[in-house]
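Extended Data, panel c. Modelled sequence:
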Amino acid sequence: MPGQDSDQDRMEWLRRSRFEAGLILDSSRTNLHHLDHVWHGPQPVNDVNGRDALTETVLQPLSASLEHVEERLDILIAGSFKGSDWTACCGHYAGLWTGPLFGVPATGRPAWLRFGRFERWDGDRIKETWEIFDLPGMMMQADIWPLGPGLGRPLVSPGPATRNGIVLESGSAEEAHRTLTLTEEMIDALLAYDGQDFESMRMPDYWAPHMAWYGPAGIGTMRGYEDYRRGHGKPFLGAFPDRQGALHKCRIAERTYCASTGWPSVQATHSGDTFLGIPATGNRVGMRVMDFWRRDGDLLSENWVYIDMIDLLAQMNVDIFGLMREPIGGS
């Protein structure tokens, strides 16, 4: 690692290192990881201990499944959180889907695997990673998603409308602080829900009227505050009325972007309305979640949301892989 003259130099080095590593998906990519690196992933992979195991368990299956796989980043930021340096990024793995991927059968056609990732650095190496793959999105691309359609549109989410999600040079600390402050004020307002009235959270104070919310497969994409309230905000609170923040791992901001994750990020009881067609189970659930936000002036304009839906559904007594292999109504 080269010597850095300032925190900004350090963050720029982290961004460049992560960006350059993202251009390859063979075993040499893991040279950026500590030997005892720990990868926390989604169901059905979960935790992977060690750099060699990361190659064997995650990278090689990706390369074997998606021919000529490319990592296409939409957002990449770096920052410090609770004494550690972090990078956070999101985008897609793209390739020709020629082999099964973590239990989902191939289509032989082009595919886009949505992902979000947070990495905690120790010196010039990555010590720990949290990553969510949108495997339900792959099931939808293969036309084998066994549950009903979500309330939003099942789209391959685009990158930022401003096309500036990756800037390797550092921005101003003041702009980053402004983004972080607005995002945290919005989160505080979410947690102020009175249990009765959706508008008690005052979301229009924080979101642009024509905001875009890019949710995980199964929930989908919404455009505009009213569409978001209809398609996710109210149904989610109806199903999980006591939801609260949980074990946050990282929250950082750069320029007009903020990113946050927890493992789990949200804890709740599935005690209210039907969710994704599943009646209330009364089960306590923890949700692995990643959020990436873009600020536009004084309001948030875009939100990329990653949830380990397979893990959440398992906690709601739904074996999505079992249903995938024998869909409801099948013989």
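Confidence is low (pLDDT under 50) at residues 327-331. This feature is highlighted in the accompanying rendering.
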